[in-house]
Amino acid sequence: PAFTALQGVLTADQDIREEIRKVVQALEQTAREILTLLQGVHQGAGFQDIPKKCQKAREHFGTVRTQLESLKTKFPADQYYRFHEHWRFVLQRLVFLAAFVVYLESETLVTREAVAEILGIEADRERGFHLDIEDYLSGVLILASELARLAVNSVTAGDYSRPLRISTFINELDSGFRLLNLKNDSLRKRYDGLKYDVKKIEEVVYDLSIRGLNKEAAVGAGGEK
Q1: What is the C-alpha to C-alpha distance for residues 208 and 140, in angstroms, rounded to an integer?
Q2: Pick from 74, 60, 97, 61: nearest CA to 23
């Protein structure tokens, strides 16, 4: 009888995981749609309609909120970390996408509280389904490599001031991460990648300065930098 009881527990657990997986697949699909939309900013003409792309992306986040609402109902509220690995990856991607939208709109770093609000979940662990700090930081690091790519593509598109602004932003981000003592392995690996992003952007800015294009960019941005 002991084993019969255990089988019952195992089956219930598998059912929960299966239900979670279904919602996570739907979330992954929405995340792909948002990413496809935002990838358009890397094309030459993409810079013109950034506000329109951001607005559309924010509409998609409405779907994300509905899907996360559904995810919350699939497991006992006090067992968040027991099932966390199922949605951790997609949540990090959604943090990145929310951070990318906010960056494109205002060139600022989104706070964890603001991301939680965009996703319709809690920032505070005590209050239920929340945005884990490490998931937030991972998403921010994905943003850094996306911006390194944007800096390169900006030059191709003839926008010479954007890489300078991205460079300032990424250096501030790097300084922020230096203050943290990162114990999580996957997060530390991601953070190692930030060094390459910083280097890549520095090379873009250096190249602009050699070609004398940063002066032009600084004047265009309102006075010498």
Answers
A1: 26
A2: 74
| CA angle (17 as vertex; 139, 97 as ends), nearest 5 | 20
Q: If you average pLDDT over residues 120-142, what whole number do you get?
A: 95
Cβ within 8 Å of residue 145, ≥6 positions away? 193, 196, 197
Residues 163-181: pLDDT tens digits? 999 999 999 999 999 999 8
135 and 95 in contact (C-beta within 8 Å)?
Answer: yes
β-partners of residue 87 are none
pTM given for the model = 0.91
Tokens 């279904």, residue located: 22
Tokens 């006075």 sit on residue: 223
Q: Is 28 annotated as a binding residue?
A: no
Distance (Å, whole) CA 72 – CA 208: 48
pLDDT digits (tens, 9 = 90+) for 18-37: 999 999 999 999 999 999 99
Residue in 203, 102, 216 with CA at minimum distance from that of residue 160: 216
Which residue, among 41, 53, 52, 49, has the nearest Cα to 156 in the 3D structure? 41
Name which of 33, 19, 31, 135 is nearest 81 in CA terms: 135
pLDDT in tens, 55-83: 999 999 999 999 999 999 999 989 999 99
108-118 confidence digits (pLDDT tens): 999 999 999 99
Q: Of 145, 156, 50, nearest to 107 (Cα)?
A: 50
